[in-house]
């Protein structure tokens, strides 16, 4: 997909931020905008309304903002998310802050864009629980203001509103959920050597050095996304399925061949969920065994606000995550070769936590959107 860079300051500053766009995005690259879905203030406003509309669920209780709450740094702070009828899924809801920079969406990367991702939860029986996209479109077409908004934004009459229009509007709103300007950014990219504490500075050194965190949570010379957009097997949860993984893979193949949606299988069946990236790369005849148990590297920006951690929400604190990496004891035949014991001292662990807390932006979209 061809991308163009667009300055979003005029589109979001009045709604969310009291500082300049340059300050707000210090430490971040330009937001990538698809050429076929340019940003406009009207489209963003429409997307935000759809994002927060609980009517777009089977029982009128769930919106995108339920699991990606602005008040909770666009997560829900639960191990795994709860959808319609109190249904509990298998995956932790990742933050949407800076999701505009991800090259893949979902923990297994099964969707290539925010537009593609936005469609799935609506019809997933564990999430919004609509019977099909037509049900969502019927709600939208009968609304008192949506038809006028879609006409203004996309130039379509009510009967021509499509699920693609809906997902494009939601994605446009999500591309404004951007936050940099953390103490780390001001320290490294802004030249303010007082922006981070001595503990956080030491933590940065450990992060880049002994702990090797930056191998996957990347820091560049002019910006830092804190993700390589790659996929890795860290052993988390994998021991539950490793002895039966080929059996689970074959059952998954059969379910897909029978017409069951992948996203339904992922959120309903915990064994399937633990297979990770291979759920995307598998074909009826080929199996990329290297993809088994691999999950996307999440961003670490504002990470102190997005607990619990990992794809299954199994680690409650940042120190728990550091201990996992430090011991490297979740062995399995497909463990990422980068995952080795670190032998960190207690001081180094404390410093790493201080550094990761220095990745929190002072003015998050979450804070401003809920005012």
Detailed description of the structure:
The protein has 371 residues and is mainly α. It is 37% helix and 3% strand. The chain has 17 helices and 4 strands. It has helices spanning 9-16, 21-24, 41-51, 64-67, 114-123, 133-141, 146-154, 163-174, 183-188, 198-208, 245-257, 262-268, 270-273, 278-281, 318-327, 346-357, 365-369, and strands at residues 3-5, 32-34, 231-232, 295-296. It has a two-stranded antiparallel sheet. Strands 3-4 form a two-stranded antiparallel sheet. Helix 5 (114-123) crosses helix 8 (163-174) and helix 10 (198-208) crosses helix 16 (346-357). The longest helix is centred in the C-terminal third of the chain and has 13 residues, at 245-257. The protein is globular, with a radius of gyration of 21 Å. Residues 1-18 and 366-371 have low confidence and may be disordered.
pLDDT < 50 stretches = 1-18, 366-371
Strand order of the largest sheet: 1-2
**CA radius of gyration:** 21 Å
Order of helices and strands: EHHEHHHHHHHHEHHHHEHHH
Secondary structure category: mainly alpha
In total, the number of strands is 4
Task: Identify the overall geometry.
Answer: globular
Mean of pLDDT: 91
> Largest sheet, described in full?
2 strands, antiparallel
Q: Distance between the terminal alpha carbons, to the nearest Å?
A: 36 Å
Discrete helix count: 17
Beta-strand fraction estimate = under 5%
Helix content: 25-40%
Layout: helices, strands, pairs:
Blueprint: E1 3-5, H1 9-16, H2 21-24, E2 32-34, H3 41-51, H4 64-67, H5 114-123, H6 133-141, H7 146-154, H8 163-174, H9 183-188, H10 198-208, E3 231-232, H11 245-257, H12 262-268, H13 270-273, H14 278-281, E4 295-296, H15 318-327, H16 346-357, H17 365-369
Antiparallel strand pairs: 1-2, 3-4
Helix pairs in contact: 3-8, 5-8, 10-16, 15-16
